[in-house]
Design brief:
By secondary structure, the protein is of the alpha/beta class. It folds into 2 domains: about 10-120 and about 235-265, D-Maltodextrin-Binding Protein, domain 2 (3-Layer(aba) Sandwich); about 120-230, Periplasmic binding protein-like II (D-Maltodextrin-Binding Protein, domain 2). The chain is about 35% helix and about 20% strand. It has helices at about 50-65, 75-85, 100-105, 155-165, 175-185, 190-200, 210-215, 245-255, 260-265; strands at about 10-15, 40-45, 70-75, 90-95, 115-120, 120-125, 145-150, 185-190, 205-210, 220, 230-240. The strands form 3 sheets. A 6-stranded mixed β-sheet has the order 1-3-2-4-11-5, with helices on both faces.
């Protein structure tokens, strides 16, 4: 049985038998592959922001591929990439950016190139009912408690792009980026942990993926101006050391094909090229 490092925050194992009663999803013709003739266990390491969507993906994939079990572990993309580079066993890596899959490719640990499979938008979240932050400019107000993630976590890099763009907009303070950084009171391991802090009222605001804001149901959203729009791109890669490379590639094809895209869209993810 494969073991995972302590930095992995959550694991979902959905065997084919748990898919009973789920709505079958037709596989994409381009993603079809000969069915496995014996049980196959694929280990998927995935960005924390994909956790909820991958529950549905797992059930649908089990319906289409009854001999395949997906073992899914989620955490920060940066943490997972580091674990893979250090030898953690995995078949597929799904990241909330393109930088971390590129590290796997550049390190010679990938079976083929990285594949874009989803996009996401960013939004500001605040505790439900809070009026401390009502506009993006309020992120720079003195005393505002901003919750962020670690420096290497993808959401942090996307948030930095948003803040830099806001600082260049008319009516926004040019030192907004510095003021925002000064307001950061906590840095969490991944975006799910960031949202959890806002849900608990332990911070006034955070910049997160729109899908995580929607999934929470316990936070309010503050829109980011269109002129500061930043789009997140998700990419995945098959790990070169996979014991089941053909099945791993078939899963990536399925996820980036019609069936997988339909499920991701249900959770608010964008097509990879939009």
């Amino acid at each position: 049985m494969r073991q995972f490092g302590p930095l992995i925050l959550s694991m979902v194992v959905l065997a084919a038998c748990t898919a009973a009663g789920s709505s079958p999803v037709a596989p994409s013709p381009a993603a079809s592959a000969p069915p496995a003739t014996e049980p196959v266990d694929l280990t998927i390491l995935a960005a924390a922001s994909l956790r909820d969507a991958l529950d549905a993906v797992s059930a649908a994939y089990a319906s289409d591929h009854p001999t395949v079990t997906l073992t899914i572990a989620t955490d920060s993309s940066a943490v997972l990439a580091t674990q893979i580079l250090e030898g953690a066993p995995a078949d597929v890596f799904l990241s909330a950016d393109e930088t971390n899959p590129a590290k796997i490719v550049d390190g010679g640990l990938a079976d083929g190139p990285a594949i874009r499979f989803a996009g996401n938008e960013l939004t500001i979240v605040v505790p439900s009912g809070s009026s401390t932050v009502t506009t993006a400019a309020d992120l720079a107000k003195p005393g505002v408690k901003v919750i962020a993630a670690g420096a290497e976590v993808p959401i942090t890099k996307y948030a930095s792009q948003v803040v830099d763009a806001l600082a260049g907009l008319p009516g926004y303070p040019p030192d907004l980026a510095a003021a925002y950084a000064a307001n950061v009171v906590s840095r969490e391991d991944n975006v799910k942990a960031v949202v959890a802090k806002i849900e608990l009222g332990e911070g006034d605001a955070a910049i997160v993926f729109a899908t995580d804001a929607t999934a929470s149901g316990k936070v309010d959203r503050v829109d980011i101006p269109a002129d500061a729009y930043v789009r997140a791109t998700y990419a995945g890669v098959v790990i070169g050391g996979s014991d089941r490379p053909a099945e791993a590639r078939a899963f990536m094809d399925w996820l980036s094909g019609g069936a997988g895209q339909a499920i991701l869209a249900e959770f608010g993810f964008l097509p990879p090229g939009s």
